[in-house]
């Protein structure tokens, strides 16, 4: 029986050991200052793990994470502390990370106090300003998390992250639990904060529709591997990987609400025993012999657009893909 750490190691072993770092390098899963990068895939594809590794809260079991060009493992003391503060995570359910017995003022003020970012007597003003900035009524600072709605709690989580003056926010399904109208509000808030504080985002979501409108670049993952990466427009207009094509087909259509929902057939395989060759082959409608034995590598098919699929090597790709049946 594997423990969690081992599972994660294996999950990444599935790609990292071989070449995920390489693959990530090829698509630049470098996140550049000021960028909004979307990381998309079904649950269990490794995107949360990758996000945690990039935020420096989980060590990589293979490969290397660099912060401003320096490996995280080489950072110590003040450098390490600065890095950890610079990258903050915002999770799906703030209740799981907010101590229910603490008041909002303390929840938001805790880290800046510990790290000496704000002096004790300036704390209330500091927290009130932050609360106001994220759309929370500053007169509620003495309330407890359970006294707020889901959307408000997410605002508390955002204020808490901002309180330590981060550069990178890693948002892991940060709007997934919210109603659609609240989702839009929180996404708008993220984009406003980006402009105001010069933030960079790694935006993790299972929902391509959510990342479409806010990201500069979308990276699609499947079972621990990056399978495609492009700008949102390019990805939606010209998806190359059959997995990406299936994800796009899954999106509810705004123009045609009667359209049939077409889920990707089959279960996502266990990351502990990924299929050989292309990990997607058991679910891929286009799979051919080579897919079952040879791992496809990322190739650039248009400027800034890479995908890992053997179809890239076939001249008939366009024709084949145009006539493909939905998955
Ligand atoms: Fe499908 Fe083969 Fe491409 Fe994998 S490599 S996505 S199985 S066509
Ligand atoms: Mg997850």
TrEMBL record:
How is the protein disposed in the membrane? Peripheral membrane protein
Cell compartment(s), UniProt: Cell inner membrane
Instruction: Give a yes or no for keyword Nucleus in this entry.
Output: no
Which key words tag this protein in UniProt?
Answer: ATP-binding, Nucleotide-binding, Transport
Q: Using the record's annotation, list all stretches that form the ABC transporter domain.
A: 6-248
Q: Does the keyword Repressor apply?
A: no
Biological source species: Neorhizobium galegae bv. orientalis str. HAMBI 540
Q: Name one Pfam family in it.
A: ABC_tran
InterPro entries assigned to the protein according to its UniProt record, in alphabetical order: AAA+_ATPase (IPR003593), ABC_transp_ATP-bind (IPR050319), ABC_transporter-like_ATP-bd (IPR003439), ABC_transporter-like_CS (IPR017871), Oligopep_ABC_C (IPR013563), P-loop_NTPase (IPR027417)
GO: which molecular function terms? ATP binding; ATP hydrolysis activity
The biological process GO terms on file are:
peptide transport; transmembrane transport
- State the GO CC annotations: plasma membrane
By what name is this protein known?
Oligopeptide ABC transporter, ATP-binding protein AppF
Q: Which gene encodes it?
A: appF
Main location per the UniProt record: membrane
Question: PROSITE patterns given for it?
Answer: ABC_TRANSPORTER_1, ABC_TRANSPORTER_2
Q: Which family does it belong to?
A: Belongs to the ABC transporter superfamily.
Taxonomically, the superkingdom here is: Bacteria
SUPFAM superfamilies tied to this protein: P-loop containing nucleoside triphosphate hydrolases (SSF52540)
- Quote the NCBIfam families the UniProt record gives: oligo_HPY
């Amino acid at each position: 029986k594997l423990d969690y750490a081992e599972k994660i190691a294996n999950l990444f072993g599935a790609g990292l050991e071989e070449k995920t770092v390489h693959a990530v390098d090829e698509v630049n899963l470098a996140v550049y200052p000021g960028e909004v990068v979307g990381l998309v895939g079904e649950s269990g594809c490794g995107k949360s793990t990758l996000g945690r590794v990039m935020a420096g809260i989980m060590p990589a079991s293979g490969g290397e994470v660099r912060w401003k060009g320096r490996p995280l493992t080489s950072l110590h003391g003040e450098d390490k502390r600065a890095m950890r503060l610079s990258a903050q995570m915002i999770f799906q359910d703030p209740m799981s990370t907010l101590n229910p017995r603490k008041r909002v003022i303390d929840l938001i003020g805790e880290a800046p106090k510990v790290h000496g970012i704000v002096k004790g007597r300036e704390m209330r003003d500091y927290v009130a300003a932050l609360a106001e900035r994220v759309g929370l009524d500053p007169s509620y600072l003495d309330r407890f998390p359970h006294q707020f709605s889901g959307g408000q709690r997410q605002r508390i989580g955002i204020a808490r992250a901002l309180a330590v003056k981060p550069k990178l926010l890693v948002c892991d399904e940060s709007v997934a639990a919210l109603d659609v109208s609240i989702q839009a509000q929180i996404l708008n808030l993220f984009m406003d904060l980006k402009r105001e504080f010069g933030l960079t985002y790694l935006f993790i979501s299972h929902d391509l529709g959510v990342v479409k409108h806010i990201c500069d670049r979308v990276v699609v993952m499947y079972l621990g591997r990056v399978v495609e990466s492009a700008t949102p427009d390019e990805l939606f207009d010209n998806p190359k990987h059959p997995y990406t094509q299936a994800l796009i087909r899954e999106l509810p259509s705004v123009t045609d609400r009667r359209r049939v929902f077409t889920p990707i057939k089959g279960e996502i395989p266990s990351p502990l025993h990924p299929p050989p060759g292309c990990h997607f082959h058991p679910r891929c409608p286009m799979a051919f012999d080579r897919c079952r034995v040879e791992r496809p590598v990322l190739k650039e098919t248009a400027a800034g657009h890479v995908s890992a699929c053997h179809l890239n090597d076939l001249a008939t790709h366009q024709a084949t893909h145009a006539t493909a049946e939905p998955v």
